[in-house]
Amino acid sequence: MKKIITLLLLVLFTSSSCEKDDICDANTPTTPRLVIAFYDYDNASIPKNVNNLKVIGEGMTEGIVFNPSATDDSKYVTNGNTISIPLKTNAETTTYRFILNATSANPTLIDTDQITFNYTTKDVFVSRACGFKTLFTFTSNPTVHIAVPATKLKWMQAISVEKSNIDNENETHIKVFF
Predict the structure, then answer these.
(1) What is the value of pTM for the model shown?
(2) Which DSSP helix (H) or strand (E) runs through 82?
(3) pLDDT digits (tens, 9 = 90+) for 126-149
(4) If residue 145 lies in a helix (H) or strand (E), which one and from where to where?
C-alpha cells in the first residue's frame, strides 16, 4: 500500500511540474494602436513626412513617446510619415493635440490641431497568459473632429478613415492630408 501511495504522489508531483508557463509571448498580438499616415494634400498618393510632430493626449502634460532611447524632450517628437498612437480602452472617445513644428524656436511656426476619435470597444480573450485585448470600431460620422484656435489655420486639411475596425497595427486606419 505504501508503494502505491508513494507512486501516486510521485506521479502527481512530476505531472504538476510540467505545466506550461503562463508567460505572454512578445509576438502575441495585443490591443492595437491607431495607425495614422500623413500624405501630401496637393497629391494624395504621395506620403509626406511631418516635421517635429508632438502628440499629446487630452489631460496629459507629456506627449506620446516616439523615441524611447532619447533622454530629453526629443523622445516625444517624430519626423516620419506614419505614427501609431493608443486609444483609451476604458472610454469611447480619445482626444489628442497634434503639434506640428513642436520644437521650433519661432512660435508662429508651431501649429496645433486637435482631433477627437469616437469609437466603440470590444474586449477579446487572447490567452490565460496574455489576458484580454481591446478592439476598436469607429462610430458613425463624424468620427474625427478637427478643432483649431480661431486665430490660426488648421495644418491638417483633410482626414480620411481608411479602416473603421482597428484590430491590428499592420495597416493604416486614418490618413491625414496636409
Answers:
(1) 0.82
(2) strand 82-85
(3) 998 899 999 999 986 545 667 777
(4) strand 144-147
> Nearest Cα to 96, choosing from 145, 40, 158?
145
Contact, 123 vs 136, CB < 8 A? no
Calpha distance 67→137 (Å, rounded): 28
Provide the grid cell at 14.
512530476
Q: What are phi and psi of 2, to 5 degrees?
A: -60, -40
Q: In what order do the strands lie in the sheet with 158-161?
A: 82-85, 34-39, 174-177, 158-161
Is 64:73 a contact under the CB 8 Å cutoff?
no
The three cell numbers locating residue 122:
470590444
Of 43-57, 100-114, 140-154, minimum mean pLDDT range = 140-154
CB atoms within 10 A of CB 69: 7
